[in-house]
Amino acid sequence: MHHYDLYAVFGLDRSADCGALASRIDGLIAQTDPRDTDRMMTLRSARSILGDSGRRTRYDQQLSDPSLPPITIADLHELASLPGAGDEPPWQTAPAQGTAEMRFDGSPSWTPTTALSPTGASGSRAWVIAAAALSAIAVIVVIATVVWSLGRDGDTADDTAAEFTSAPSSSATPGSSTQASPTDTEDYSWFDDYSWFDDEEVSVAGATATSTTCDGRDCVQIVIDLDTPALGLEPSVMHNFSGDELQVDIYGVEVAYQDTFPVEDRTGGALDYLRAGSDEYGWPRLSIGVPSGTDYRVIEEFDANRVTVEIYR
Fold it and tell me: d(Cα 208, Cα 261) in Å, to the nearest integer?
């Protein structure tokens, strides 16, 4: 397992001072869709760590020692909440609001204690999707209960359904019910047809790699095309090195039950390989053969139905 390298993930200059790094991350935050909470929270932690000389020193020491426990995203959030040197420059962009818990135990030292999850940020997104599904089920159960209660016969004043009906009119026969008699079976077919995600998924159409120039630098540009835009539950991207392989995973897409999609390498050998597949949870993964630590940038353009990976040479 490898450390989560903020410099490599966000294309940051390792030799830059804290002020320059903070300014660069402010720019990345301003360009990030506020709905992409995973990326926004990671950028905020990166800004707090690399923008403060004290926290950055702790991080760089851990990052440079592969024999120590791997640095995970959770460890980054924890480090960002610890006391630093106090020289972090003011925010150029107001940080977006997040929901992650920041732990602070007053400890003067910091050492990651958790192993790197193979899904990275997808774990939190998976919990969000599961929570949304459970909430929707709860709402449906409540509605079904109300419908059932309204269908009951209100023969007596103690009947629960009487709470939902008005008092009988003066023309009503004493002792008679103002509600219709219940039917033998209730029609809940609408419940069986209910779906939360069918209209909110996208699929990966394919990926194409070409050699070009990115911001004045020679680079390999890989465009991952999506068939349809995301609706409601927007996809997210997780990327990291595993040895000499850059792995780009796309979450929240329809291709979750497929193990491949079309790829085309037009670089003429600039990449060791370009492979399509999926991770152990079924989400599509693009594996790119480049040396570990290579500078790169991932651009999420879901409104344009694509994700772009720029690898600098």
Answer: 11
Tokens 């790829």 identify what position? 263
Distance CA 182, CA 126 (A): 42
Identity of the residue numbered 236: S
How many CB atoms are closer than 10 A to CB 9?
20
CA-based nearest residue to 312, from 8, 5, 1? 8
Say which DSSP state 160 is in: G
DSSP code, position 297: E
Residues 6+ apart with CB under 8 A from 43: 10, 25, 28, 29, 32
Q: Per-domain residue ranges for the chain? A: 1-116, 120-164+181-196, 200-312
pLDDT in tens, 85-131: 877 777 654 444 433 333 333 334 455 544 333 334 444 444 445 55
Considering the domain delimited by 200-312, tell me its CATH architecture. Sandwich (2.60)
DSSP 169-232: PTTSPTT--SSPPPPSS---HHHHT--SSGGG-B-EEEEEEEEEEETTEEEEEEEEEESS---S
